Amino acid sequence: MTEGAGIRTGDLPDDLTAAEAGMWQAFRNGSVFDLRSGDTTVDDPHGGHPWGPERSVRARIVAWLLLDGPPALAGRVSSLKLTGVQIMDTLDLAGGTIVPYVELKGCRFEKEILLPEARFTTIRLVDCSVPRLEAARVHTEGDLHLPRCRFHNGVRLTDAHIGTDLLLNQAVVYRDRRGCSITADGMTVGQDLQAEMLESHGELSLRGAKVGVSLSLRGARLTNPYTRLALNAPQLTVERTLYLTPAGVGNPLLTSGTTPARGTRVQRFECRGGIRLDDGRFGDAVDLEQARFVLADDQEVSLRRVQTPELRFLGERPEHGRVILSGARTVNLVDRWTSWPGLGNLHMGGFTYENLVPQDAFPLARRLEWVAAATAEYNPEPYERLATVLRSSGEDEDAREVLLAKQRRRRETLPFAAKLWGYAQDWTVAYGYRPGRAAVWMAVLWAAASIAFSHASHPPVDKDAHPPWNPSLFALDLLLPVIDLGQAGQWQLRGGWQWVSTAVILLGWILATTVAAGATRLLRRG
Protein backbone atom coordinates (compact mmCIF):
# COMPACT_ATOMS: atom_id res chain seq x y z
CA MET A 1 0.00 0.00 0.00
CA THR A 2 1.38 3.44 -0.87
CA GLU A 3 2.44 5.34 2.23
CA GLY A 4 -0.07 8.03 3.02
CA ALA A 5 -2.97 6.50 1.13
CA GLY A 6 -6.09 6.20 3.18
CA ILE A 7 -4.61 8.05 6.13
CA ARG A 8 -7.14 10.85 5.95
CA THR A 9 -9.92 8.35 6.56
CA GLY A 10 -7.99 6.56 9.28
CA ASP A 11 -7.38 3.31 7.40
CA LEU A 12 -4.65 1.10 8.86
CA PRO A 13 -1.64 0.71 6.51
CA ASP A 14 -0.99 -2.85 5.38
CA ASP A 15 2.72 -3.11 6.23
CA LEU A 16 2.50 -2.36 9.94
CA THR A 17 3.70 -4.88 12.52
CA ALA A 18 1.40 -5.88 15.35
CA ALA A 19 3.15 -3.43 17.71
CA GLU A 20 2.92 -0.63 15.16
CA ALA A 21 -0.75 -1.34 14.51
CA GLY A 22 -1.45 -1.11 18.23
CA MET A 23 0.47 2.17 18.41
CA TRP A 24 -1.51 3.46 15.43
CA GLN A 25 -4.83 2.77 17.06
CA ALA A 26 -3.72 4.19 20.43
CA PHE A 27 -2.63 7.38 18.64
CA ARG A 28 -6.10 7.85 17.13
CA ASN A 29 -7.70 7.10 20.48
CA GLY A 30 -5.34 9.40 22.45
CA SER A 31 -4.60 6.57 24.87
CA VAL A 32 -1.38 5.16 26.29
CA PHE A 33 0.25 2.33 24.31
CA ASP A 34 1.96 0.24 26.97
CA LEU A 35 4.21 -2.72 26.03
CA ARG A 36 5.78 -3.38 29.42
CA SER A 37 6.09 -7.01 30.50
CA GLY A 38 5.52 -6.40 34.20
CA ASP A 39 9.03 -7.54 35.13
CA THR A 40 10.90 -4.46 36.39
CA THR A 41 14.27 -5.94 35.42
CA VAL A 42 13.19 -6.70 31.86
CA ASP A 43 11.33 -3.38 31.53
CA ASP A 44 14.27 -1.25 32.63
CA PRO A 45 15.08 0.84 29.52
CA HIS A 46 18.65 1.30 30.74
CA GLY A 47 19.25 -2.37 31.50
CA GLY A 48 20.86 -4.98 29.32
CA HIS A 49 17.83 -7.20 28.77
CA PRO A 50 16.95 -7.28 25.04
CA TRP A 51 13.51 -6.24 23.82
CA GLY A 52 12.21 -8.27 20.91
CA PRO A 53 10.15 -7.27 17.85
CA GLU A 54 6.96 -7.58 19.87
CA ARG A 55 8.04 -4.41 21.72
CA SER A 56 9.62 -2.56 18.78
CA VAL A 57 8.29 0.01 16.33
CA ARG A 58 10.03 1.69 13.42
CA ALA A 59 11.02 5.34 13.85
CA ARG A 60 9.59 5.98 10.38
CA ILE A 61 6.11 5.02 11.57
CA VAL A 62 6.45 7.22 14.67
CA ALA A 63 7.44 10.15 12.46
CA TRP A 64 4.52 9.37 10.12
CA LEU A 65 2.05 9.58 13.00
CA LEU A 66 3.47 12.83 14.34
CA LEU A 67 3.91 14.69 11.06
CA ASP A 68 0.95 13.43 9.02
CA GLY A 69 -0.98 11.02 11.17
CA PRO A 70 -4.57 9.79 10.86
CA PRO A 71 -7.46 11.77 12.31
CA ALA A 72 -8.54 11.16 15.88
CA LEU A 73 -11.53 9.01 16.60
CA ALA A 74 -14.76 10.82 17.25
CA GLY A 75 -14.67 12.62 20.58
CA ARG A 76 -10.92 11.97 21.02
CA VAL A 77 -7.72 14.00 20.68
CA SER A 78 -4.89 12.25 18.91
CA SER A 79 -1.63 11.98 20.86
CA LEU A 80 1.43 9.76 20.99
CA LYS A 81 1.76 8.18 24.42
CA LEU A 82 4.17 5.24 24.50
CA THR A 83 5.39 3.24 27.49
CA GLY A 84 7.99 0.46 27.36
CA VAL A 85 8.41 0.69 23.58
CA GLN A 86 11.63 0.34 21.56
CA ILE A 87 11.99 2.74 18.61
CA MET A 88 14.18 1.33 15.85
CA ASP A 89 16.41 3.40 13.55
CA THR A 90 16.78 7.20 13.71
CA LEU A 91 13.73 9.26 14.67
CA ASP A 92 14.00 12.22 12.29
CA LEU A 93 11.55 15.07 12.79
CA ALA A 94 13.91 17.86 11.68
CA GLY A 95 12.08 20.94 10.48
CA GLY A 96 8.66 19.42 11.10
CA THR A 97 5.64 20.86 12.87
CA ILE A 98 4.27 18.37 15.38
CA VAL A 99 0.80 19.21 16.63
CA PRO A 100 -0.10 16.09 18.69
CA TYR A 101 0.90 15.82 22.31
CA VAL A 102 3.99 13.59 22.73
CA GLU A 103 4.79 11.59 25.88
CA LEU A 104 7.18 8.62 25.93
CA LYS A 105 7.91 6.82 29.18
CA GLY A 106 10.45 4.08 29.80
CA CYS A 107 11.24 3.75 26.09
CA ARG A 108 14.43 2.79 24.28
CA PHE A 109 15.75 4.49 21.17
CA GLU A 110 18.07 2.44 19.00
CA LYS A 111 19.57 5.52 17.36
CA GLU A 112 19.60 9.28 17.86
CA ILE A 113 16.61 11.61 17.88
CA LEU A 114 16.80 14.45 15.35
CA LEU A 115 14.65 17.49 16.15
CA PRO A 116 16.52 20.51 14.66
CA GLU A 117 14.13 23.37 13.89
CA ALA A 118 11.12 21.22 14.71
CA ARG A 119 8.09 22.81 16.36
CA PHE A 120 6.09 21.13 19.14
CA THR A 121 3.36 22.04 21.56
CA THR A 122 4.70 19.93 24.45
CA ILE A 123 7.06 16.96 24.37
CA ARG A 124 7.86 14.68 27.27
CA LEU A 125 10.47 11.92 27.35
CA VAL A 126 10.52 10.33 30.79
CA ASP A 127 13.04 7.67 31.89
CA CYS A 128 14.07 6.90 28.30
CA SER A 129 17.37 5.59 26.95
CA VAL A 130 18.55 7.76 24.04
CA PRO A 131 21.87 7.54 22.17
CA ARG A 132 21.76 11.28 21.40
CA LEU A 133 19.25 14.13 21.23
CA GLU A 134 19.96 16.61 18.44
CA ALA A 135 17.52 19.52 18.89
CA ALA A 136 19.22 22.75 17.83
CA ARG A 137 16.67 25.56 17.30
CA VAL A 138 13.79 23.35 18.39
CA HIS A 139 10.71 25.33 19.36
CA THR A 140 8.05 24.31 21.88
CA GLU A 141 5.00 26.28 22.88
CA GLY A 142 4.84 24.40 26.16
CA ASP A 143 7.27 22.18 28.09
CA LEU A 144 10.23 20.06 27.11
CA HIS A 145 10.54 17.36 29.76
CA LEU A 146 13.48 14.95 29.83
CA PRO A 147 13.55 13.70 33.46
CA ARG A 148 15.42 10.50 34.35
CA CYS A 149 16.50 10.00 30.73
CA ARG A 150 19.96 8.77 29.82
CA PHE A 151 21.72 10.28 26.85
CA HIS A 152 24.82 8.33 25.87
CA ASN A 153 26.30 10.81 23.38
CA GLY A 154 25.10 14.18 24.57
CA VAL A 155 22.21 16.59 24.07
CA ARG A 156 22.24 19.57 21.74
CA LEU A 157 19.76 22.39 22.39
CA THR A 158 21.63 25.30 20.82
CA ASP A 159 19.32 28.30 20.22
CA ALA A 160 16.32 26.25 21.31
CA HIS A 161 13.18 28.07 22.41
CA ILE A 162 11.22 26.39 25.22
CA GLY A 163 7.89 28.12 25.80
CA THR A 164 7.45 27.21 29.47
CA ASP A 165 9.62 24.73 31.42
CA LEU A 166 12.66 22.62 30.60
CA LEU A 167 13.03 19.65 32.93
CA LEU A 168 16.19 17.56 33.20
CA ASN A 169 15.69 16.27 36.72
CA GLN A 170 17.72 13.12 37.45
CA ALA A 171 18.84 12.88 33.84
CA VAL A 172 22.23 11.29 33.08
CA VAL A 173 24.10 12.78 30.15
CA TYR A 174 27.43 11.58 28.77
CA ARG A 175 29.71 13.62 26.56
CA ASP A 176 29.63 13.78 22.79
CA ARG A 177 32.63 13.73 20.45
CA ARG A 178 33.43 17.35 21.33
CA GLY A 179 33.47 16.66 25.06
CA CYS A 180 30.10 18.32 25.78
CA SER A 181 27.30 16.66 27.70
CA ILE A 182 24.63 19.32 27.10
CA THR A 183 25.16 22.11 24.59
CA ALA A 184 22.47 24.76 25.04
CA ASP A 185 24.18 27.97 23.98
CA GLY A 186 21.71 30.74 23.18
CA MET A 187 18.76 28.73 24.49
CA THR A 188 15.67 30.55 25.79
CA VAL A 189 13.41 29.04 28.47
CA GLY A 190 10.17 30.89 29.18
CA GLN A 191 9.85 29.82 32.80
CA ASP A 192 11.96 27.38 34.87
CA LEU A 193 14.95 25.30 33.88
CA GLN A 194 15.10 22.46 36.40
CA ALA A 195 18.06 20.12 36.29
CA GLU A 196 17.91 18.83 39.85
CA MET A 197 19.97 15.71 40.56
CA LEU A 198 21.33 15.96 37.02
CA GLU A 199 24.40 13.82 36.33
CA SER A 200 26.57 15.40 33.68
CA HIS A 201 29.74 13.79 32.30
CA GLY A 202 31.43 16.42 30.16
CA GLU A 203 30.94 20.14 29.67
CA LEU A 204 27.51 21.58 30.38
CA SER A 205 27.38 24.64 28.13
CA LEU A 206 24.79 27.41 28.62
CA ARG A 207 26.58 30.32 26.98
CA GLY A 208 24.23 33.25 26.46
CA ALA A 209 21.19 31.25 27.61
CA LYS A 210 18.14 33.03 29.05
CA VAL A 211 15.82 31.62 31.72
CA GLY A 212 12.55 33.42 32.43
CA VAL A 213 12.23 32.42 36.09
CA SER A 214 14.77 30.25 37.96
CA LEU A 215 17.53 27.81 37.06
CA SER A 216 17.84 24.95 39.52
CA LEU A 217 20.83 22.62 39.64
CA ARG A 218 19.98 21.42 43.12
CA GLY A 219 21.80 18.22 43.94
CA ALA A 220 23.35 18.05 40.48
CA ARG A 221 26.71 16.37 39.92
CA LEU A 222 28.78 17.86 37.15
CA THR A 223 31.97 16.04 36.20
CA ASN A 224 34.40 16.86 33.44
CA PRO A 225 37.88 15.30 33.72
CA TYR A 226 38.52 15.93 30.03
CA THR A 227 38.66 19.76 29.80
CA ARG A 228 38.85 22.69 32.22
CA LEU A 229 35.13 23.47 32.54
CA ALA A 230 32.28 21.38 33.89
CA LEU A 231 29.80 24.29 33.68
CA ASN A 232 30.42 26.86 30.96
CA ALA A 233 27.75 29.58 31.20
CA PRO A 234 29.08 33.07 30.45
CA GLN A 235 26.46 35.77 29.77
CA LEU A 236 23.77 33.60 31.32
CA THR A 237 20.59 35.52 32.21
CA VAL A 238 18.26 34.21 34.91
CA GLU A 239 15.36 36.46 35.85
CA ARG A 240 15.22 35.14 39.39
CA THR A 241 17.63 32.72 41.14
CA LEU A 242 20.39 30.31 40.17
CA TYR A 243 20.42 27.42 42.65
CA LEU A 244 23.61 25.39 43.13
CA THR A 245 22.29 23.93 46.38
CA PRO A 246 21.22 20.59 47.93
CA ALA A 247 18.18 18.60 46.84
CA GLY A 248 16.14 16.07 48.75
CA VAL A 249 17.12 12.56 47.67
CA GLY A 250 13.68 11.05 48.16
CA ASN A 251 11.86 13.18 45.62
CA PRO A 252 13.67 16.27 44.31
CA LEU A 253 10.56 17.51 42.55
CA LEU A 254 9.01 18.20 45.94
CA THR A 255 12.00 20.32 47.00
CA SER A 256 12.08 22.41 43.85
CA GLY A 257 12.10 26.06 44.83
CA THR A 258 12.42 25.28 48.55
CA THR A 259 15.02 24.16 51.02
CA PRO A 260 14.65 20.46 51.94
CA ALA A 261 12.89 19.97 55.26
CA ARG A 262 14.99 19.26 58.33
CA GLY A 263 15.81 15.58 58.58
CA THR A 264 15.50 14.99 54.84
CA ARG A 265 18.48 13.17 53.32
CA VAL A 266 19.98 15.55 50.84
CA GLN A 267 22.46 15.46 48.00
CA ARG A 268 24.66 18.52 47.62
CA PHE A 269 25.49 20.21 44.36
CA GLU A 270 28.94 18.97 43.37
CA CYS A 271 31.12 20.13 40.53
CA ARG A 272 34.32 18.34 39.54
CA GLY A 273 35.76 20.83 37.11
CA GLY A 274 35.75 24.56 36.54
CA ILE A 275 32.68 26.81 36.55
CA ARG A 276 32.37 29.89 34.37
CA LEU A 277 29.50 32.31 35.01
CA ASP A 278 31.23 35.45 33.70
CA ASP A 279 29.00 38.43 32.83
CA GLY A 280 25.91 36.65 34.14
CA ARG A 281 22.79 38.55 35.18
CA PHE A 282 20.61 37.14 37.96
CA GLY A 283 17.45 38.93 39.08
CA ASP A 284 17.27 37.63 42.67
CA ALA A 285 20.31 35.63 43.75
CA VAL A 286 23.12 33.21 43.07
CA ASP A 287 22.82 30.57 45.78
CA LEU A 288 25.81 28.32 46.55
CA GLU A 289 24.55 26.85 49.83
CA GLN A 290 26.63 23.74 50.68
CA ALA A 291 28.01 23.58 47.12
CA ARG A 292 31.15 21.48 46.70
CA PHE A 293 33.82 22.34 44.13
CA VAL A 294 36.57 19.87 43.32
CA LEU A 295 39.07 21.78 41.20
CA ALA A 296 42.50 21.22 39.73
CA ASP A 297 45.10 23.91 40.39
CA ASP A 298 44.43 25.55 37.01
CA GLN A 299 40.62 25.54 37.32
CA GLU A 300 38.34 28.29 38.59
CA VAL A 301 34.95 29.15 39.97
CA SER A 302 34.71 32.28 37.85
CA LEU A 303 32.09 34.93 38.64
CA ARG A 304 33.76 37.78 36.76
CA ARG A 305 31.45 40.78 36.28
CA VAL A 306 28.41 38.88 37.56
CA GLN A 307 25.52 41.10 38.66
CA THR A 308 23.01 39.89 41.23
CA PRO A 309 21.15 41.44 44.18
CA GLU A 310 22.38 38.66 46.45
CA LEU A 311 25.35 36.32 46.35
CA ARG A 312 25.10 33.44 48.84
CA PHE A 313 28.65 32.14 49.01
CA LEU A 314 27.99 29.39 51.53
CA GLY A 315 29.62 26.34 49.98
CA GLU A 316 32.53 24.17 51.00
CA ARG A 317 35.98 25.74 50.72
CA PRO A 318 37.71 24.40 47.57
CA GLU A 319 41.06 22.82 48.39
CA HIS A 320 42.56 23.72 45.02
CA GLY A 321 41.83 26.11 42.19
CA ARG A 322 40.70 29.71 42.41
CA VAL A 323 37.56 31.73 43.08
CA ILE A 324 37.33 34.83 40.86
CA LEU A 325 34.97 37.71 41.71
CA SER A 326 36.73 40.43 39.74
CA GLY A 327 34.30 43.11 38.61
CA ALA A 328 31.28 41.34 40.14
CA ARG A 329 28.51 43.44 41.69
CA THR A 330 26.04 42.47 44.38
CA VAL A 331 23.97 44.22 47.03
CA ASN A 332 24.03 41.56 49.75
CA LEU A 333 27.02 39.28 50.24
CA VAL A 334 25.91 36.33 52.37
CA ASP A 335 28.94 34.23 53.30
CA ARG A 336 30.88 32.12 55.79
CA TRP A 337 34.57 32.47 56.42
CA THR A 338 34.92 28.69 56.02
CA SER A 339 33.68 28.94 52.42
CA TRP A 340 36.45 31.14 51.06
CA PRO A 341 39.75 29.83 49.65
CA GLY A 342 43.13 30.76 51.09
CA LEU A 343 45.88 33.17 50.15
CA GLY A 344 46.41 33.57 46.42
CA ASN A 345 43.31 31.59 45.42
CA LEU A 346 40.78 34.42 45.78
CA HIS A 347 40.62 37.39 43.41
CA MET A 348 38.27 40.32 44.13
CA GLY A 349 39.61 43.24 42.07
CA GLY A 350 36.68 45.55 41.36
CA PHE A 351 34.25 43.37 43.36
CA THR A 352 31.57 45.63 44.86
CA TYR A 353 29.00 44.81 47.54
CA GLU A 354 26.85 47.04 49.73
CA ASN A 355 25.94 44.85 52.71
CA LEU A 356 27.63 41.98 54.51
CA VAL A 357 25.36 39.26 55.90
CA PRO A 358 27.75 36.76 57.50
CA GLN A 359 26.48 33.34 58.51
CA ASP A 360 27.86 31.81 61.69
CA ALA A 361 30.74 33.60 63.42
CA PHE A 362 32.69 35.86 61.08
CA PRO A 363 34.78 38.17 63.31
CA LEU A 364 36.70 41.11 61.92
CA ALA A 365 40.01 39.25 62.18
CA ARG A 366 38.63 36.57 59.84
CA ARG A 367 37.26 39.24 57.53
CA LEU A 368 40.74 40.78 57.31
CA GLU A 369 42.15 37.34 56.47
CA TRP A 370 39.53 37.16 53.73
CA VAL A 371 40.73 40.44 52.24
CA ALA A 372 44.38 39.40 52.61
CA ALA A 373 43.65 36.15 50.76
CA ALA A 374 42.37 38.22 47.83
CA THR A 375 45.47 40.42 47.71
CA ALA A 376 48.51 38.20 47.28
CA GLU A 377 50.04 41.42 45.96
CA TYR A 378 49.02 44.59 47.75
CA ASN A 379 45.82 46.12 46.41
CA PRO A 380 44.04 48.85 48.41
CA GLU A 381 40.65 48.40 46.75
CA PRO A 382 39.32 45.37 48.71
CA TYR A 383 40.27 47.06 52.00
CA GLU A 384 38.59 50.32 51.02
CA ARG A 385 35.44 48.53 49.86
CA LEU A 386 35.19 46.62 53.15
CA ALA A 387 35.76 49.80 55.17
CA THR A 388 33.07 51.63 53.22
CA VAL A 389 30.54 48.86 53.81
CA LEU A 390 31.35 48.68 57.52
CA ARG A 391 31.10 52.45 57.89
CA SER A 392 27.75 52.56 56.09
CA SER A 393 26.40 49.99 58.55
CA GLY A 394 27.56 52.10 61.52
CA GLU A 395 30.64 50.06 62.43
CA ASP A 396 33.12 52.94 62.36
CA GLU A 397 35.62 51.32 64.71
CA ASP A 398 35.82 48.21 62.54
CA ALA A 399 36.17 50.39 59.45
CA ARG A 400 39.18 52.13 61.02
CA GLU A 401 40.72 48.76 61.84
CA VAL A 402 40.36 47.73 58.18
CA LEU A 403 42.02 50.91 56.94
CA LEU A 404 44.80 50.47 59.48
CA ALA A 405 45.31 46.93 58.19
CA LYS A 406 45.49 48.38 54.68
CA GLN A 407 48.31 50.75 55.71
CA ARG A 408 50.22 47.95 57.40
CA ARG A 409 49.84 45.77 54.31
CA ARG A 410 51.04 48.65 52.13
CA ARG A 411 54.06 49.15 54.40
CA GLU A 412 55.32 45.69 53.43
CA THR A 413 55.79 46.89 49.84
CA LEU A 414 57.78 50.05 50.68
CA PRO A 415 61.56 50.58 50.63
CA PHE A 416 63.46 50.43 53.90
CA ALA A 417 63.41 54.17 54.77
CA ALA A 418 59.71 54.53 53.99
CA LYS A 419 59.04 51.37 55.95
CA LEU A 420 60.73 52.88 59.02
CA TRP A 421 58.62 56.00 58.66
CA GLY A 422 55.56 53.77 58.41
CA TYR A 423 56.48 52.01 61.65
CA ALA A 424 56.85 55.42 63.31
CA GLN A 425 53.36 56.43 62.20
CA ASP A 426 51.97 53.08 63.32
CA TRP A 427 53.55 53.16 66.78
CA THR A 428 52.63 56.74 67.47
CA VAL A 429 49.16 57.38 66.07
CA ALA A 430 48.34 54.14 64.15
CA TYR A 431 48.45 56.05 60.87
CA GLY A 432 45.92 58.52 62.26
CA TYR A 433 43.22 55.92 62.88
CA ARG A 434 43.87 55.96 66.65
CA PRO A 435 44.42 59.66 67.37
CA GLY A 436 44.22 59.12 71.12
CA ARG A 437 47.70 57.65 70.98
CA ALA A 438 49.14 61.14 70.23
CA ALA A 439 47.95 62.48 73.58
CA VAL A 440 49.38 59.46 75.39
CA TRP A 441 52.77 59.78 73.70
CA MET A 442 52.82 63.55 74.35
CA ALA A 443 51.99 63.05 77.99
CA VAL A 444 54.66 60.34 78.40
CA LEU A 445 57.37 62.43 76.70
CA TRP A 446 56.38 65.56 78.57
CA ALA A 447 56.48 63.81 81.92
CA ALA A 448 59.81 62.12 81.19
CA ALA A 449 61.40 65.37 79.92
CA SER A 450 60.03 67.37 82.87
CA ILE A 451 61.58 64.96 85.36
CA ALA A 452 64.86 64.90 83.45
CA PHE A 453 65.18 68.68 83.14
CA SER A 454 64.38 69.19 86.82
CA HIS A 455 67.89 67.80 87.43
CA ALA A 456 69.62 69.80 84.69
CA SER A 457 71.96 72.73 85.18
CA HIS A 458 70.26 75.69 83.53
CA PRO A 459 72.12 79.03 83.71
CA PRO A 460 70.05 81.84 82.15
CA VAL A 461 71.03 83.46 78.86
CA ASP A 462 70.28 86.90 80.32
CA LYS A 463 71.08 87.13 84.02
CA ASP A 464 69.12 90.32 84.43
CA ALA A 465 65.90 89.42 82.60
CA HIS A 466 64.64 85.88 82.60
CA PRO A 467 61.46 84.12 83.76
CA PRO A 468 61.47 81.72 86.70
CA TRP A 469 62.82 78.26 85.86
CA ASN A 470 60.03 75.76 85.21
CA PRO A 471 61.24 72.36 83.90
CA SER A 472 57.70 71.34 82.82
CA LEU A 473 57.16 74.46 80.71
CA PHE A 474 60.68 74.15 79.33
CA ALA A 475 60.04 70.54 78.25
CA LEU A 476 56.68 71.48 76.72
CA ASP A 477 58.28 74.36 74.79
CA LEU A 478 60.79 71.91 73.27
CA LEU A 479 58.11 69.32 72.44
CA LEU A 480 55.71 71.67 70.66
CA PRO A 481 57.07 72.77 67.27
CA VAL A 482 56.29 76.27 66.05
CA ILE A 483 54.59 77.31 69.32
CA ASP A 484 56.85 79.48 71.53
CA LEU A 485 56.14 79.41 75.25
CA GLY A 486 59.06 81.72 76.06
CA GLN A 487 61.13 79.09 77.86
CA ALA A 488 63.46 77.33 75.41
CA GLY A 489 65.43 80.46 74.46
CA GLN A 490 65.94 81.70 78.02
CA TRP A 491 68.15 78.94 79.41
CA GLN A 492 71.46 77.38 78.50
CA LEU A 493 72.02 73.62 78.74
CA ARG A 494 75.49 72.18 78.64
CA GLY A 495 77.11 68.81 77.96
CA GLY A 496 74.79 65.83 77.70
CA TRP A 497 71.72 67.94 78.42
CA GLN A 498 72.10 69.54 75.01
CA TRP A 499 71.73 66.10 73.44
CA VAL A 500 68.70 65.42 75.60
CA SER A 501 67.05 68.69 74.55
CA THR A 502 67.83 67.95 70.90
CA ALA A 503 66.28 64.49 71.21
CA VAL A 504 63.15 66.00 72.77
CA ILE A 505 62.87 68.50 69.90
CA LEU A 506 63.26 65.72 67.29
CA LEU A 507 60.69 63.54 69.01
CA GLY A 508 58.31 66.48 69.14
CA TRP A 509 58.70 67.08 65.42
CA ILE A 510 58.23 63.38 64.62
CA LEU A 511 55.14 63.22 66.79
CA ALA A 512 53.72 66.42 65.28
CA THR A 513 54.42 65.25 61.73
CA THR A 514 52.78 61.88 62.24
CA VAL A 515 49.77 63.54 63.86
CA ALA A 516 49.51 65.91 60.90
CA ALA A 517 49.82 63.00 58.43
CA GLY A 518 47.14 61.07 60.28
CA ALA A 519 44.83 64.09 60.46
CA THR A 520 45.29 64.69 56.73
CA ARG A 521 44.40 61.06 56.05
CA LEU A 522 41.31 61.28 58.23
CA LEU A 523 40.17 64.51 56.56
CA ARG A 524 40.73 63.00 53.11
CA ARG A 525 38.76 59.93 54.10
CA GLY A 526 35.95 62.10 55.45
From TrEMBL:
Keywords: Membrane, Transmembrane, Transmembrane helix. The chain crosses the membrane at residues 499-523. The keyword Transmembrane applies. The keyword Membrane applies. This is Oxidoreductase. It comes from Streptomyces yaanensis.
